[in-house]
Amino acid sequence: MTELLSAPPRVITVGAALLEEALAAQAIETIPVSWRPPLPGTEDALAAVLADPRRAAANATAVRRLTSAAPQLVGVRRASELLPGRTFLHAGPPITWERASGPLRGALIGAMLLEGLAADEAEAERRIGTVTLEPCHHHRMVGPMAGVVSPSMWMLEVRDAEHGGSAYCSLNEGLGKVLRYGAYGPEVLERLRWMEEVLGPVLAAALARTGPIDLRGIIAQALQMGDELHNRNRAATSLLLRELAPAIVEAAPEQAAAVLRFINSNDHFFLNAGMAASKACADAARGIPGSTMVVAMARNGTDFGIQVSGLGDRWFTGPAGVPDGLYLGAYGPADANPDIGDSTITETCGLGGFAMAAAPAIVRFVGGEVADAVNATRSMYEITLAEHPAYQIPGLDFRGAPVGIDVTLVARTGILPVVNTGIAGRVAGTGQVGAGLVKPPVEAFTAALTALAEAL
Questions:
Q1: Of 213, 248, 279, which residue sits at a domain end?
Q2: 415 and 378 share a domain?
Q3: 42-46 long-range CB contacts below 8 Å, 24 or more apart?
Q4: Which phi and psi angles does 331 have, rounded to 5°?
Q5: Are 181 and 211 in the same domain?
Q6: Within a 10 A sphere around the Cβ of 108, how many other Cβ atoms?
Q7: Can you give the pLDDT of all 456 residues of the chain as single tens digits?
Q8: What is the value of pTM for the model shown?
Q9: Residue 19: exposed, middle, or buried by beta-carbon count in 10 A (0-12, 13-18, 19+)?
Q10: Are 25 and 49 part of one and the same domain?
Q11: Where are the alpha helices (DSSP H) in 342-426?
Q12: I want to staple 72 with a disulfide (CB 3.0 to 4.6 A). Which of 2, 212, 306, 434 is the partner?
């Protein structure tokens, strides 16, 4: 007892760093404890869900299925083969035309013109009610930004060789004024028609020659080459092009130069394949009773929604926020639409904002400094269930990317997922106006937590 009393004092500090700093200035040893109160109003639901005896095993199963999935690019198919007639898809949770944002409206108008269902913008708006609008996620698909898919478009087909599921994503148009950002001018439609008539058929023929392409391996390698697989895909696109180029030349020698030139000029070409790969991985973890792991995050330009493994296909939503980032040319925050797109499926699987530490150059695109990218990744370990065994980050001593967002960890820490994203102009037809970082609305996670508690 005497020895304890004579020992130098040590103080346990919790929460604000001010006390710890003051004690350190007095040469008093501190033992800092990282702790935050849970999100306000979640205490009862959190206690109930944490007490669920199924939770630990269910989450272990969900994480294992997600991280063991083996996505392979196996083909390219027309959307008309996969969808009911006169069905258009969009990104994010369900939404009606009346609530649709400018870029989503612009993309839907462009799709109506592309399909010959309207002669001009005014007719497209009048006739939009003649088609069925449904979320991409409801058809095992994902779409970047507005995410609009119409019957004539070609879809990348990804198959999970481990669990047997399939997922699809449209072909990437490139940057600038493109349909996914809500642009629908003549140059946009001309490019889409070329993709329909040339790019899609050539890729289908090439993949018939190559056989399945290992996307998990490409993603793992690209992370070690400076990509984070959401807003930086330069390495992954180059790796995919190496796989495809010989088969493209063999399958379509007369069109090969144009196709290769298009892919080579578009650093984001791999993004859509990576999204479909992530969708296939996340879908492998769906439907596990008791699991609190997020299996989808998506935005439609108005709402941000999530889905949770243990809650089936239910959406939990909140208002989509406007990204904070860098703007192109004379554009500024007043020109920005709220967050939009299914590309947050990459963050759901430990990529994108969760892997920014692997891509220090990303800060030149979305803003901030290299330290911010590293800190963003480090913070995501606090709300995830595991580290991905294949997706490793060199700058963190090859630590696995944080994966498996847990609703209970979000509620316990108050930390929200980090997303890096392009920014669409709020006025239909504008196109891309910038890129930056955004956080989901806390309401989506608290609503999911409440639903998990009510389901017990």
A1: 279
A2: yes
A3: 42/411, 42/446, 42/449, 42/450, 44/453, 45/411, 45/446, 45/449, 45/450, 45/452, 45/453, 46/408, 46/411, 46/412, 46/449, 46/453
A4: -70, 155
A5: yes
A6: 26
A7: 455 455 566 666 656 566 667 767 776 776 665 667 788 889 999 999 999 999 999 999 999 999 999 999 999 999 999 998 899 999 999 999 999 999 999 999 999 999 999 999 999 999 999 999 999 999 999 999 999 999 999 999 999 999 999 999 999 999 888 999 999 999 999 999 999 999 999 999 999 999 999 999 999 999 999 999 999 999 999 999 999 999 999 999 999 999 999 999 999 999 999 999 999 999 999 999 999 999 999 999 999 999 999 999 999 999 999 999 999 999 999 999 999 999 999 999 999 999 999 999 998 888 888 999 999 999 999 999 999 999 999 999 999 999 999 999 999 999 999 999 999 999 988 889 999 999 999 999 999 999 999 999
A8: 0.92
A9: middle
A10: no
A11: 345-348, 363-366, 370-380, 407-413
A12: 212
Q: Cα-flanking dihedrals φ and ψ of residue 323, to 5°?
A: -60, 150
- Helix and strand counts by DSSP (H, E) for the chain: 17, 18
Whole-number Å distance between alpha carbons of 189 and 195: 10
Distance separating alpha carbons of residues 273 and 78, to the nearest angstrom: 15
Sequence-distant (6+) residues with CB within 8 A of 386 are 63, 67, 400, 402, 403, 404
The phi and psi torsions of 455 (rounded to 5 degrees) equal: -80, -10
Helix (H) or strand (E) holding 67: helix 55-68
Domain limits for position 362: 43-66+286-454
- The phi and psi torsions of 184 (rounded to 5 degrees) equal -145, 25
Give how many domains the chain has, as a whole number: 3
- Asked whether residue 385 falls in the same domain as residue 427, the answer is yes
Strand blocks (E) in 123-233: 132-135, 141-142, 154-160, 166-170, 213-214
How far is the first Cα of the chain from the last one, in angstroms, to the nearest whole number? 49
The pair of three-digit structure tokens given for residue 253, joined into one six-digit string = 């020698």
233 falls within a domain: yes
CATH value at residue 327: 3.90.1700.10
- Residue 111 sits in the same domain as residue 225: yes
Backbone region of residue 290 per phi and psi (left: phi > 0; alpha: psi in -120 to 50; beta: other values)? left
Backbone angles phi, psi at 168, to 5 degrees: -140, 150
- Looking up tokens 């507005």, which residue turns up? 146
Q: To 5 degrees, how large is the angle CA 74–CA 75–CA 80?
A: 135
